[in-house]
Specification:
Layout: H1 2-37, H2 48-70, E1 78-88, E2 91-100, E3 122-130, E4 133-134, E5 145-148, E6 159-164, E7 174-179, E8 186-191, E9 196-200, E10 202-203, E11 210-216, E12 222-228, E13 234-238
Antiparallel strand pairs: 1-2, 2-3, 3-4, 3-5, 6-7, 7-11, 8-9, 8-12, 10-11, 12-13
């Protein structure tokens, strides 16, 4: 009987030791996996990060959508490029080219007297102001506009004009505006008092449409208008403007 009790006690001790070994093995396994999963964290609680994970994912989505949206910029339907601006006779003046990629609502292409059958798909407008008043505003919103085909229509080049608010540009403060060929880098307007006004050619981005503009004060007459290339070689010389 005594021997049997001793054996039972021994067996019980072995069983407890075995249970202790299993428990230690599980703890060692957890300790080994912990640093590998969270190498930069020393916090003992493992359940806290799981609670904040959905908020982190939700916050990342708008940023991802925003980045994707920024990579595909919208193409503007109307591009306005300032050609020149300043003051003349104490009044502010400015000239800009306004390019519409499609024909705007309300615009009706005029009949071409030359019988040109090429359809206009876009519109190019020349917006000129003296003292805050748009030249030719009496003609409506599409005055000083011409129909063009896309962004590379060569028909819009080669024109020059003298514009003003009075007497069809023959008196008062006026603007000389040229829509030159591609090789013209700048223009020079020579006045009767010896003044020479130089104006640089500016192009509407993404198109071949370009212009330069120079102011002519009231009471002055024009003696010559010259255009030059980028190497300062004179390309045109006109003396008929007044």
């Amino acid at each position: 009987m005594a021997l049997s009790l001793a054996r039972k006690a021994a067996l019980a001790t072995v069983a407890i030791a075995a249970l202790g070994g299993v428990s230690f093995g599980a703890s060692a396994s957890e300790a080994a996996s912990g640093p590998a999963a969270h190498p930069a964290s020393s916090a003992p609680a493992a359940s806290a990060p799981a609670a904040s994970a959905p908020a982190s994912v939700a916050a990342a989505r708008p940023a991802s959508v925003h980045r994707a949206h920024r990579q595909v910029p919208q193409t503007p339907q109307v591009v306005t490029q300032v050609i020149g601006k300043g003051r003349v006779d104490g009044h502010r003046w400015s000239v800009a080219l306004e390019f519409h990629r499609t024909l705007p609502k309300g615009y009706t292409p005029p009949k071409d007297p030359a019988g040109d059958s090429t359809p206009s798909t876009a519109l190019l407008c020349q917006r000129m102001y003296i003292g805050g008043v748009r030249i030719d505003h009496q003609g409506g919103p599409w005055s000083d506009c011409q129909g063009v085909t896309g962004t590379q229509d060569r028909r819009a080049a080669g024109e020059m004009g003298l514009w003003g608010l009075h007497d069809k540009g023959l008196s008062g403060s006026r603007l000389m505006v040229s829509n030159p060929e591609a090789d013209v880098a700048y223009g020079v307007v020579s006045l009767s008092d010896g003044t020479r006004v130089r104006a640089t050619t500016v192009t509407v981005p993404g198109t071949v449409y370009r212009a330069w503009a120079a102011p002519v004060p009231g009471g002055h007459t024009i003696t010559a208008v010259d255009q030059y290339d980028s190497h300062h070689h004179r390309l045109t010389h006109d003396t008929y403007w007044r």
